[in-house]
Amino acid sequence: FVCVNAARPWICDDNVKGPPSMRYFTGVSCFTDDAHHTGMLLISGLTICLFAAPLIALTVDVTFNHGANVLRGAAPMQTSWQFLFFVWTPTRYSFGVFLLLRQLALALLPIIVTALGGSGVSLLLSIGAVFQAWLVAILAYQPWRTAGANAMDLCVTISMVALVSVGIALVPRDEYHESEVSWPVVVTATVVCVALVLPVVSMVQDRLFRRKRFAVFLCHHKGGGGILARWFKMLVSNR
Q1: Contact at 8 Å (CB) between 13 and 23?
Q2: Which of 40-54, 91-105, 127-141, 168-182 shows the lowest mean pLDDT across its residues?
Q3: For 28, which DSSP code?
Q4: Which residues pair with residue 88 across a beta bridge?
Q5: Terminal alpha carbon distance of the chain
Q6: Alpha carbons 220 and 223: distance in angstroms, whole number
Q7: d(Cα 89, Cα 153) in Å, to the nearest integer?
Q8: Nearest-CA neighbor of 125 among 179, 155, 168, 171?
Q9: What is the DSSP letter of 72?
């Protein structure tokens, strides 16, 4: 929320009647002698440098040192940052970083797309790509601690993807170029084709070049043949 609001002074649109103006405050001219916009940019930069950047850096540092802190018994450190980990499953504790980066991407995408001269379609496609990547991560890893949280996040993300798709369809035809829509279609079609072909290639490869899973397979009675099997394993391992 803070990053989204801090990014707003940097989002400007062209104005046919004069210099570019802010998208959310159309009465403020961008990158001119307007004192209001200069003050907004200053406050935005300070917010990002003093709040957003340190928070991201600390979160990344604490998350990727979490295992080492647990092993060395750094209880105060872990207690202070427990809010980053208790909502995730123990093996997916690093998802807090990815969630923070997702939110940062959603805040910065309007600035990046506007600076590159993209239209609303490009912005919606970029936002949709972020939500689709998060959707794949939720389906693949189920990172939330409870099944209800995973289901809720899944429903919300699917709803956002659907909302973005509807928004793209509602953009007037004269406000975007065909290339902004054609390359995502080509990339999507390529990914679908690759996803369909790869399993078939993998199955054929397994059939034609089948490999043994074990060099030696020992099967023995648990009580009566365990010692003999262990001795045989030692003999085979030494060769």
Answers
A1: yes
A2: 168-182
A3: S
A4: 144
A5: 63
A6: 9
A7: 15
A8: 168
A9: T
SS3 percent helix, strand, coil of the chain, rounded to 5, is 70, 5, 25
**pLDDT tens-digit map of 15-26:** 767 777 776 677
Q: Shortest CA distance to 121 belongs to which of 60, 48, 170?
A: 170
The count of other CB atoms within 10 Å of the CB of residue 203 is 10
Residue 170 and residue 124: Cα distance in Å, rounded?
11
Contact 67, 115 (CB under 8 A): no
pLDDT tens digits along 41-65: 788 888 777 777 888 888 888 888 7
Indicate if the alpha-carbon torsion angle 154, 160, 162, 164 is positive or negative.
negative
8 Å CB contact between 29 and 21: yes
Q: What angle do CA 131, 136, 139 make, to 5 degrees?
A: 120
- At residue 177, φ and ψ (nearest 5 deg) are -100, 155
- Contact by Cβ (8 Å): 48, 63: no
- Give pTM, 2 decimals: 0.65
**Phi and psi, residue 33, nearest 5°:** -85, 10
